[in-house]
From TrEMBL, chains A, B:
This is IclR family transcriptional regulator. Residues 74-257 form the IclR-ED domain. The keyword Transcription regulation applies. GO terms for biological process: negative regulation of DNA-templated transcription. One of its GO terms (molecular function) is DNA binding. Keywords: DNA-binding, Transcription, Transcription regulation. InterPro entries: GAF-like_dom_sf, HTH_MetabolicPath_Reg, Tscrpt_reg_IclR_C, Tscrpt_reg_IclR_N, WH-like_DNA-bd_sf, WH_DNA-bd_sf. Residues 10-73 form the HTH iclR-type domain. The keyword Protein biosynthesis does not apply. Gene3D superfamilies: 3.30.450.40, Winged helix-like DNA-binding domain superfamily/Winged helix DNA-binding domain (1.10.10.10). It comes from the Bacteria. It comes from Billgrantia endophytica. Transmembrane segments: none annotated.
Amino acid sequence: MTNHTPKSGAQLLDRAVLLLDLVAGGSREGMTLKALCEQAELNKATCHRILNSLAEHGMLDKDPDGRRYRLGTKLLVLGAKAANGPGLRSLCQPALTRLCQESGETTMLMARDRDDSVCIDRHDGSFLLQTLTGSIGGYVPLGVGPGSLSMLAFMAADEREEVLERNWPRIAAYPALTRDKLRRLIDETISQGYALDRGELVPGVAGIAVPIRVAETGPVASLGFTILSARLSSEMIERYVQALRDEVASIEPHLNPLDRRLTSPERILGQS
Amino acid sequence: MTNHTPKSGAQLLDRAVLLLDLVAGGSREGMTLKALCEQAELNKATCHRILNSLAEHGMLDKDPDGRRYRLGTKLLVLGAKAANGPGLRSLCQPALTRLCQESGETTMLMARDRDDSVCIDRHDGSFLLQTLTGSIGGYVPLGVGPGSLSMLAFMAADEREEVLERNWPRIAAYPALTRDKLRRLIDETISQGYALDRGELVPGVAGIAVPIRVAETGPVASLGFTILSARLSSEMIERYVQALRDEVASIEPHLNPLDRRLTSPERILGQS
DNA sequence: CCTTTTGTTTCATATTATGGAATTTATATA
DNA sequence: TATATAAATTCCATAATATGAAACAAAAGG
């Protein structure tokens, strides 16, 4: 996810979030004060004070021996609340369950978050497949992978270009995706109405996805399947796309701002 | 979870975390600036600045119309990382899967976090049962419910009393638990070696749990089943306790500080 | 045991966050 | 549609807060 470091009239907060990101992205065994100081380019004392305040609040945990910091339990609690709250996950859960049960495939709900696509929920099918985004909470730049691509493709053209401009560097990290290739994929997605990956990003693992759109805002999420590419057939694609479209059609009215008072008070998650 | 408001040399952070907690605990439709100002007893402008900085960083999301704040996608991402990282969840995942598959029961992994017990992972069995802690991320004060109780009971006596002292007010919120009752439950748990709830906290829903302990620190987690109390039998209890103990026995060596270099570099999650 | 490295505490300083007031924007009412 | 009310946002002089250099303490390494 993009590491904004905005001067937002709250320097201390900017620094705290930066440190959380560094801990999140750092060594799996936890980060030492020294490493964090260096990476964040902060003074030892300052860094120490922030880290310990975060630990105090449960946002970070310190080892028993107190020499390494890692993400804390409060983040787990807040994260679970963020996912379950009102919004996409709750709204789409029945659809996700149905799709997974009827198809037996791994089914994914992705949401847009600024320039990224985050996995909000996932139901595993009969096969355990490696997906691009991994489990819940995993993310990819908008454009990478079918769930993500289906959102990018259906954004307003100007916004799409802005996102692409910002995302190119990160997209370049995927050897399977050149600029031309992605352009072609976007065009295909628009004309077909769904995004398809035949197994090029994660070898052997294919995916289909359909965007969930809100009138003014554009796509806010996507619903899709992850499938062993060996099993992929055009008949299957057709059938699955139809199933996804049906579910999306029954979800979208709940997200349309005009209908808000008429439908449930659900709101969408993942908007800036 | 206890709302520490420690003057930790980082006022701004204290305030930011307080606001996150208020948003997390507040109305499911999101919190307005006004409401948050009042509850946090902060100046409107100050509050506004902090909330927007948090939103800027993705820790909060603002509605499309920008009048309500709710938990942001970044919390979901960080929360997932906190859960998956090295530590209890990964370490216990195989055990959890085995226990659930072999018994068909809802299986829970709880971790200690200060004075609380947090649900770190959960595998649903054949029945969908309402549990005390709900899903992942849910928490209860130490002492409430078998998973939580099994940890409290096996803490060092002095520490246990300190925790109890702090927790009484919150425990009082559970009508099924009087002081005497909890004292009795703790004694029972110690003598039996496992915690049992026959369905008194959530009517009709029983639970068994066994603590996961680390040599110096004491219990850091617990593994347990949630069962329809109607189906509970003493034979079943015996069998399930044995299954839990077997798994715990194979987990504990990985957590023992002495063995750390010998075993995997897994560390525990949820220590203060 | 001594040396080096890493973590913690202190405190005078100035940078940063603060909050009262003014302005803009949205919502409710006539 | 106009008007009143309330909420959100921006501004800026002020003071309180976070800062970081340095001194200190505690581990790790030799």
